[in-house]
């Protein structure tokens, strides 16, 4: 009799223990609230926007070197940066046809973008002044490029000596620098240099 009571008590204890699990039979025992493992979340860091020049001075020095290498008489000097509080900018005129406009980061005085405007709607000016200036600016911001690389960028921008000055449109990216060109019958050629991630 004692043995029977003992075995009954043992069965009750076993079932009490098994009640702590989801038991679908002797071949399957699952833990309640089984832990789940999710892959760790990878923190996405914002893409760093690198300026096209560390300062207006650095840009000016690079431009003058490139202009000299190209055998031109273009020189940037006495560049005045206008501080409007919210942003800084410079406007430099080589002559009444060629103008550079640069935007400066207020936080660290680095150069975030440069826009070149080449006025005039004749093909002669495009080939003799505007395309050489664009080439100089490409060399200024990408000084390690070979001549064939610059020519490839000019082609992607739609710039060639026989191009229609009023029908130019193109973009090119090289070493994280984005070059854009477009033309307008009233303004002329507009050429922009920015960081590709801007």
Structural summary, described in words:
- It is built from four helices and nine strands, in the order H-E-E-H-E-E-E-E-H-H-E-E-E.
- The radius of gyration is 34 Å and the shape is globular.
- The protein starts with a helix and ends with a strand.
- With 198 residues, the protein is of the alpha+beta class.
- Helix 2 (56-69) packs across helix 3.
- A seven-stranded antiparallel β-sheet has the order 3-4-5-6-9-8-7, covered by helices on one side. Strands 1-2 form a two-stranded antiparallel ribbon.
- It has helices at 2-18, 56-69, 123-141, 147-157; strands spanning 21-23, 29-31, 81-83, 88-93, 98-104, 111-118, 169-174, 177-184, 188-195.
- The longest helix has 19 residues, at 123-141.
Give the amount of beta strand, in percent: 25-35%
Radius of gyration over alpha carbons? 34 Å
Order of adjacent strands in the largest pleated sheet: 3-4-5-6-9-8-7
Question: How is the main sheet built?
Answer: 7 strands, antiparallel
First-residue to last-residue Cα separation:
88 Å
Low-confidence stretches: 2-15, 26-31
Find the structural class using helix and strand composition. alpha+beta
Proportion of residues in helical segments: 25-40%
Q: What is the chain-wise order of helices and strands?
A: HEEHEEEEHHEEE
Mean pLDDT: 81
Shape: globular
User: In total, how many beta strands?
Assistant: 9
Can you summarize this structure?
Helices cover 31% and strands 26% of the residues. With 198 residues, it is an alpha+beta fold. The longest helix has 19 residues, at 123-141.
């Amino acid at each position: 009799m004692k043995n029977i009571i003992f075995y009954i008590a043992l069965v009750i204890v076993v079932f009490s223990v098994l009640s702590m699990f989801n038991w679908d039979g002797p071949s399957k025992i699952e833990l309640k609230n089984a832990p789940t493992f999710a892959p760790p979340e990878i923190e996405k860091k914002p893409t760093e926007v690198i300026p096209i020049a560390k300062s207006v001075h650095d840009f000016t020095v690079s431009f003058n070197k490139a202009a000299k290498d190209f055998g031109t008489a273009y020189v940037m000097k006495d560049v005045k940066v206008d501080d409007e509080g919210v942003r800084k900018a410079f406007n430099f005129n080589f002559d009444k046809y060629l103008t550079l406009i640069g935007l400066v980061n207020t936080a660290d005085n680095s150069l975030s973008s440069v826009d070149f405007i080449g006025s005039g709607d004749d093909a002669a000016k495009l080939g003799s002044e505007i395309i050489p200036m664009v080439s100089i600016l490409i060399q200024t911001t990408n000084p390690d490029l070979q001549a064939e690389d610059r020519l490839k960028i000019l082609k992607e921008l739609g710039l060639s000596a026989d191009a229609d000055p009023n029908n130019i449109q193109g973009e090119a990216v090289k070493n994280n620098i984005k070059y854009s060109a477009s033309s307008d019958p009233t303004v002329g050629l507009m050429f922009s240099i920015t960081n590709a991630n801007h």
